[in-house]
Amino acid sequence: MRVLFMITRDWLNPAASGGDIAPSENARYLALKGHSVTMLVSSFPGASWEETVDGVRIVRLGPVLSLSLVTFIHYVRHCRGRYDVIVEEGFGGSRIPRFAPLYVKEPIITEWHQVHHALFASQYPRILTPALDLLERLTAYLHRNALVRAGTSEWQEAFVGLGFKRENVFVLPVSIRESWLSKDVSEPAAGRVSEPRVVWLGKFRRYKCPDHVVMAMKKVVTQMPQARLILVGRHDDRRYERKLQRLVTELGLEENVEFRFNVSEEEKKSILRGSRALVLPSPVEGFGIVVLEANACGIPVVASTGVPEGAVQHEYNGLRYPFGDIDALSWSIIRLLKDDELHLRLSANGLEFSEQFAWSRIGMQFEEIVKGTMAVGSVQA
């Protein structure tokens, strides 16, 4: 098969997020299986315009803001008629959607991470929310005849409400590399971490709400003065980062909160394995690859109701609380820090849960979907 991916960032891009990593991992799996795979993505400082990595041909077309237009031009000049299936990010990391169904004739599989209303409301000025909601619905309408990937059954239902045809929406979760699932005897045993340490992972963006965790820590430290929060992530909004640092100071938490930027994968894994809980407080998540990374390290997750239950199940692989309820978030963290029996049970369940999402297993499912899409497209042609 010849498969063309149109996504925002490849996995080598330092700014890549979960929405970029999931399709990138599927592209790498297809290449491993001998298929011809090309990715059209944005560039980043120091990157080659074109290179082949893990069998995937990566073509970097320039800045994110111009990606929609440049993708259209490059496709028309160099790609039309040369691929069997197009995998396109319909709405997500690109500032401007590509609107691929307007010019792509090959069968399309659309990556749609979540319904974005809650993200818009948290990240942007309120006056822009109606226009952004309209743009998302318009983009969904243009993709009504394409196959659409949903990360969980909850998003499958939500996407139908957004305007997609029910029969076109399929569920395929994100994946995690087998290296995360292997047990390292040199690290603390799952469920045995005694240090009262909590971690947040992500890009430092407003809608990710790490400030909620900082505020929750004020009550946590009244119960457990030695409790620590590590905020681990990549720079994205320096103004917001300064606001977070001021909040830490205002709450008198300088000794309890630490910022860690641009850590390596090994450092991230080490931080997780030395923590009692990961907190995911955002108002909306497509799935949250960090959930699998934490669970694979035996770390339960405290998740807001913005995280789908398909990712975090209450009292199974984590604890859930109402989004924005700082008091409930505080007590959920305290429970996991104090209750060893609860922590051990959720830790064991998390290890079992994460194994369902092994890279090879999800990649095989995606390969079958691409083959089926190509077959249907061939018949229609």
Describe it.
The two termini are 16 Å apart. 46% of the residues are buried. Helix 1 packs across helix 13, helix 7 packs across helix 11 and helix 10 crosses helix 12. The chain folds into two domains: 197 residues, Rossmann fold (3-Layer(aba) Sandwich), CATH 3.40.50.2000; 177 residues, Glycogen Phosphorylase B (Rossmann fold), CATH 3.40.50. The strands form two sheets. It has an eight-stranded mixed beta sheet with strand order 3-4-2-1-5-6-7-8, with helices on both faces. It has a six-stranded parallel beta sheet with strand order 11-10-9-12-13-14, with helices on both faces. With 381 residues, the chain is of the alpha/beta class. The model has no long low-confidence stretch (mean pLDDT 92). The longest helix has 22 residues. The protein is globular. The protein contains 13 helices and 14 strands.
Q: What are the defining features of this structure?
A:
single chain, 381 residues, alpha/beta, Rossmann fold, 2 domains, six-stranded parallel beta sheet, 13 helices
SSE blueprint and pairings:
Elements (H helix, E strand, L loop, with lengths): L1 E5 L11 H15 L3 E6 L8 E4 L2 E5 L6 H13 L5 E7 L16 E5 L4 H7 L5 H14 L4 E4 L2 H10 L6 E3 L6 H4 L15 E7 L6 H14 L4 E7 L3 H13 L6 E5 L3 H9 L3 E4 L8 H8 L4 E4 L13 E4 L4 H13 L1 H15 L4 H22 L1
Parallel strand pairs: 1-2, 1-5, 2-4, 5-6, 6-7, 7-8, 9-10, 9-12, 10-11, 12-13, 13-14
Antiparallel strand pairs: 3-4
